[in-house]
What we know:
Blueprint: H1 3-30, H2 35-54, H3 61-82, H4 96-115, H5 126-130, H6 132-137, H7 140-156, H8 162-172, H9 174-184, H10 190-207, H11 211-227, H12 232-262, H13 268-283, H14 286-289, H15 292-302, H16 305-314, H17 325-335, H18 350-357, H19 370-406, H20 416-420, H21 430-454
Helix pairs in contact: 1-2, 2-3, 2-4, 3-4, 3-15, 4-19, 7-8, 7-9, 9-10, 9-11, 10-11, 12-13, 16-19, 17-21, 19-21
Amino acid sequence: MNIAEQYQSPNKLLFHASTLVTVAVLLLAFTSLSYLALAGVLFSLYILNSLLVGFGEGIPINLLIVFLACLQWVIGPVLSYYTGINHPFYGMQVPEEEYLSFAVSGVVLYYIGLSLPIAGVKNIPKEVINNIGDHINSKMRGAYYLIGIGFLSSFLSPFAPPALSFFLYLLSQLKFIGCFYLYVSDSQNKVALYVVFAFLLLEALASALFHDLLLWGMFFLFIYCIKNKVSLTKKVAALVIGFFMVFLLQSVKYQYRNIAWTNTSLDAYDQSELFFGMIVDRLFSPDVLFDPKANELTITRLNQGWIITRVMNYIPIHKPYAGGETIRGAFDAALLPRFLSENKAIAGGRANMERFTGIMLQAGTSMNISLLGEGYGNFGKDGGVIFMFLIGIVFSLILRFIILKSLVNPTYLFWIPFLYLQVVKAETDLTTTLNYLVKATIVMVLVFYTFRKVLKIEI
């Protein structure tokens, strides 16, 4: 460890300790949080601190996964319990202690599971990060090919048969990897970055779905911090601005979605004008932006706990524990082709919502029970938290492989977002996350093999 790293370690420890102690004192003095709620909030803050420090030191996707889980499984429910939100359908269905004892334990063990397999290799040497541009410079041609394949797949996807749609969707994500290559290279080609993200914005506006835009924006921040030396102060400022932008997006998203989905005559220009017009209106109308009813909707959408408590209320009272049935089905779906497993599970939350909560979703409604809910539905409280630990290990094994490969070829780092795009979403079930991770890994291997052996291009 060099002098700079020796100096950084105490600073990181001081940052963690000072923020955790300060927040703990403030919460104890000015709120009535239970010790379980306090523990959940402080653990979430610890993960956020670790994530902030991790920017610029690689792509700590395991921390991002846990942070998003903390937001939806811990922070959202705590806000719901303590802000008086008691919606008859979206409210928490079990007492605070019963839920938080399960959720906080589950997310902590999930974090441990995600961390253990990479504990010895999680810190990529500084010289690898600092010299990553040198590795990219010889792979510029491959970067343009990746962008081209990504755009071509996006345009072909609407016309492709259903059997190819997921494969083309994965290939369409290659354009982001390609523009990351160009951005980090000495050429610092930002035009490709602007074009790719402008296209992503138009796609988000057309579909009124913003998940991918937010996630790829977050992934770009990782790349930006690798390329540029960013101070902790600037990271915190970016975090505050980012949270405000997400809050602003949430305040207009549902109104915009209702218009965009019902008025099919809107073209791309009209959609952009409508969306940004709503954003400007919110900025100049604080009374609307911070309206209590709108904030209640935001908290409700953030809170995945209400679905998990529905599972806790439904299983095993109305139906028995699944005993690992959906877990086995998820691994079959991810690892076996359909001709070998005709009854393989289908990704999506409709079946799980009906089976584990008794809720029949209407057509066009998208909800899922999450990994935490699925763990409880299969094994109960104690078995559910152990499941979270074990599945965390499963998700991190591929991450360990990528990190080890990046020590030899640093460009592997840029493929982490490609592999974990769906895994980071806390609301999805195991079939969805595992199926995506395995299929994305297969596509990545095929792309590397094709480029190297057929096109004779290194990426």
